[in-house]
Amino acid sequence: MGEPLQLILLLIAVIAGAMAVFLSFRLMKRYPLPHVNSYFYYLVFLFIFGVYGLIGSGILGFTLTRMGIEARTIQSARLIALFLGIPFLVLSKYMLLRSFLEYFRKKIPSLFAIPYFITGMAVLVLYGVFMIRFGRFNQGDLALLITVQRWVFIGFLFLIYLAGWVLTTRLSNEAAGLYEKRFIRSFGTAYLLYMAVCCSIFLFLTRHPVFPFVFIFFFLAWHLIPILFLNLHLGKHHAPATSLHPDFESKLEAFSGKYDISNREREVVQLICKGYTNQEISESLFISLQTVKDHVHHIFVKTGVRNRVQLTNLIRSA
Asked: What is the CATH class of 3-237?
């Protein structure tokens, strides 16, 4: 694989990863929901690790090789670049699990968070010790340690994404509607497939020079798929935060009079326009989830709309 093609593949990977971060940022601003915010930070931290830790170390090694630097010095420089990227990798996976749980309005328990970060710090320390002692290893031991390092990395990815898939599968039974169940299960499955693709490519990482570049491409570019899927889901089931204009109250009053909306239904409409889910409306108004669903159904029937976005647009034009 020629150097120009390698550079093109890396450039596409970086652009695709940056696009995923940008799209998630727009979603976070448009739909200020906890799981959307956490997902944005997951992509940010993962992008930093991918660009700085993986691509950066590769470019550093390539540059030093062209300069005729000793192989052991080059490997040491690449290890340092990866070492500085490890905290971002650990943070990214934590934010992904947090995003999955926040979708179900749950929080990561301290019994998981504390051991998780302690383990991450321990790995960071061990990696630092490995770098300090790097010059004492002979060539055979060095190759073995690098192989162990790679398998620890892919094993970490495997465990986190498998845990995310298990969480979404088990907790999806608590979702209110069939569409929500299908969405979160599909979203979790997308990342399970992402993990499977990364692991499959990783098995052939040393077989051909092209595989490291293919791995980085999938590592960064894959996220465009779930982010577009998330955009469709939010657009259909959540009103954007920008719906509440300064004259919203007067529009809501005109809307309520035109469609014979009761006071309680008006409160529900107001929370819908703020982007609240049915469960959040239930908790805010101290009514049952089923009562909220009944109110939403009556509102849709009275106004002739089919979803929350149409309802919000109808109020805007009131």
From this structure: mainly alpha
